[in-house]
Amino acid sequence: MPPSDPHHHPDDDSEPEMLAEDDALEEIEDGEGDIAMDSDNEDGQEEITLHNDSIAYFDQHKDSVFTIAQHPKYPSLIATGGSEGDSDDAPGKGYVFDTSAAQSGPVLPPSYNSDPTAAQTTTQLEPIFAIEGHTDSINALAFTQPNGEFLASGGMDGRLRVYSVAVPGSGSASAAKIAFLAESQEVPEINWLAPCPSATYPNTIALGASDGSVWVYTIDASDASNPVQIIQSYFLHMEPCTAGAWSPDGQLLATVAEDSSLYVWDVWGAAAAKSLVTENGQTVVALTAADQRFAVEGGLYSVAVSPSGTLVAVGGAGGFIKVVGLPRLSDDTPAAAQRGARGAEASSTHAGTILASLHAQSDSIESLAFAPAPATLLAAGSVDGSVAVYDAARGFSARRHLRGAHDDFSVVRVEFVRSPPQSAAAGWLLTSCGMDGVVRRWDLRVGSAPAAHQQQQQQQGGAPSTPASSGLVKEWRGHRGDGEGGGVLGFVQGETGERVVTAGDDGLVLVFEA
Fold first, then answer.
1. Backbone Cα Rg of the chain
2. Contact 473, 443 (CB under 8 A)
3. In this predicted model, what pLDDT tens digit does every residue of 465-481 receive, in sequence order?
4. Do the beta carbons of residue 404 and residue 352 sit within 8 Å?
5. Contact 312, 246 (CB under 8 A)
């Protein structure tokens, strides 16, 4: 079984942890929302009672759930993957299931019920399909864009396995027909998968591998002899390729690696047609640690491309973030995204230029996310437990620094809600998860004092931020947490963010309602 985060180092706490008196009282009083999770596992595991805010759960996994993916057209169709046990030879396994059976929770708190002591009910979800055939953990899953016709799984065994996905005309995800199509194995281990968002190049998947290579495949079920076709393969990274992200138009693919290199690949030749590629003939941006302005000792582990497609942000060890300009290759960028890019350089003449070097956090940047256009925010989640938010329209000044956003446990993922039900909140709602086992949602309009002012206030002995003043609007609990096999290793939230589905290090998948 792989570690949930192989490049993290355990915290060195020299003093024993003590439970504060207030925390102890709070723990004793909290009973109304507790639900016992029993996975019907009869191998002697201890039943654990947790504070549980979920409305549904899936508990078929026998060990950590490393990855989760959501169908682009039918958001209730979820795929999860992990390991079948904690032994070194345990195979990988995943599942596909439908969350639409989860009943919405009550609008009012339990104290308003006729029987306030009655336990909240939660729905147990059943699998539609089992993802098998991997001899080691599944640590990457992706539905293809734009219609989710295929599901791809990537494992630590180096296998890329592809399944056809057919949802009936009724649109019932629970009736989806899923079948194995083909597999390819070109690398020792697959670290990540990313579907190409372009409708011009549908059913295309990129992957990054432990040997540093990057591969792009197109899936064509009509070609029985070769349904999983290699489109491109790249070999410039010298160490494991840790993350990748497509530009919104699907023309460019940005990848980073442990050797602190960033390459932005001209996958379809659009940049070459405009003479915008670098000397290697494959990329529009090629930056490595040889450039001291770009070097990040310890490697790069996260990457994100702005909605306008003119900026790429990379995050790495020590809390460092670099923002680099990209060329604009197409004219079909939405007007809102173009407006959002005005605050930062968006010209092709700045492709490859380091536009900002940011360092507000003290440990590795695990996740980066740009807000949907026309907002201009960039969020970063760090191993130090904090979330930092920068504003591209103001020279990437630090707008917020949510210290202890996840109680000093690693922040695993941050993602903006793309289309919240309240349109006024668009571009301002951010969801995060961490190794504390909690998912939190932040409204970045609230408590929006600049990060520098917040730090100065704390240094002068000012009162620490409260959850309300920090912009915390919701949090969901149910995973074991505390960094001991119970963190949240990923989540999906659809377009509206009304339901959040989590992948837990404790082997649970939970469904929460906003």
1. 22
2. yes
3. 555 568 999 999 999 98
4. no
5. no
